[in-house]
Amino acid sequence: MEVKDWQAALRAELESRRDAARATKMQAYMKSKLPYYGVPGPELRKLVRGLAGGLLFPWFDSFNAFVRTVWTEATHREEKYAALTLLDMKQTRAFHTMEAVPLYEFLISDGAWWDVADEVAAHRFLPLFVTDHDAVVEVLRRWSKGSDLWLRRSAIISQVLRKKDTECALLFELAEPALAEREFFLRKAIGWGLRSAAKHHPKKIQKYLDEKGDALSGLSRREALKGLVAASEEKAVKKVAPKKKSSRTRGV
């Protein structure tokens, strides 16, 4: 299917689901220049997956061009979300290699808002940490030291879903260039990264908080402490939880 035919089908489906009242609220909440149809996220993702089920991309270039066209020609914000959903289709996952990083960079920078940056940064780099670790780390280091706010934020939060695999030293390194910044979205990103890491590496995060002192913003520190509290509560629950009795019959 040609991209223009797919766009037409997508727009027709979105138009049929238009909710003017919800659309106005969504646009106001997201401070978006583009209007909304008013279609909720879960419904939109289900719709896009259904429409994209038969799409086949023989090589990365065709996939890259398709996503960029859907993104750049969007008339409503949901169409941009549709482009992001295409990144998470079963038939496109094989394309998520270092070759796709320029596409991610374009989407984050052009999207220039937290909804896009957070979606791409939190999910798209997870497999790359496994398959192309050193290469992706170099990209994130470059982003963290650059001038683009949303790429800087993306670098900091790129590990929020890595759980026990989170590399705390890397998190600290990527956050360092933003520590003195007063920008809310950077301070929040640092806090989010620390909070996520604290649940699995509480000692390292506590040590970091102690060492940084007032160099860390109050917002970032409060977020980190939430993670430490969660880790402490989980540890306490495990201590008092009754041990399950073995179902095996012991020999006499």
SSE layout:
Blueprint: H1 3-16, H2 20-30, H3 41-52, H4 60-72, H5 77-86, H6 101-111, H7 114-124, H8 126-131, H9 133-144, H10 149-157, H11 168-175, H12 184-198, H13 202-212, H14 218-240
Helix pairs in contact: 1-3, 3-5, 4-5, 6-7, 7-10, 9-10, 9-11, 10-12, 12-14, 13-14
Describe the fold and architecture.
- This protein is mainly alpha-helical and 252 residues long.
- It has 2 domains: 1-95, Leucine-rich Repeat Variant, CATH 1.25.10; 96-236, Leucine-rich Repeat Variant, CATH 1.25.10.90.
- The chain has helices at residues 3-16, 20-30, 41-52, 60-72, 77-86, 101-111, 114-124, 126-131, 133-144, 149-157, 168-175, 184-198, 202-212, 218-240.
- Helix 1 packs antiparallel against helix 3 (41-52).
- It is globular.
- The model is unreliable at 246-252 (pLDDT under 50).
Q: Quote the average pLDDT.
A: 93
| Pattern of helices and strands | HHHHHHHHHHHHHH
In whole angstroms, the N-to-C terminal distance is: 70 Å
Question: Helical amount among residues, as a percent range?
Answer: 55-70%
| Largest sheet: number of strands, sense, barrel closure | none
Organism: Archangium gephyra
Protein name: DNA alkylation repair protein
InterPro entries: ARM-type_fold (IPR016024), DNA_alkylation (IPR014825)
Pfam family, one: DNA_alkylation
Brief sketch in words of this structure:
With 252 residues, this protein is mainly alpha-helical.
What descriptors fit this protein?
Leucine-rich Repeat Variant; disordered C terminus; 0% strand; 14 helices; 2 domains; mainly alpha; 252 residues
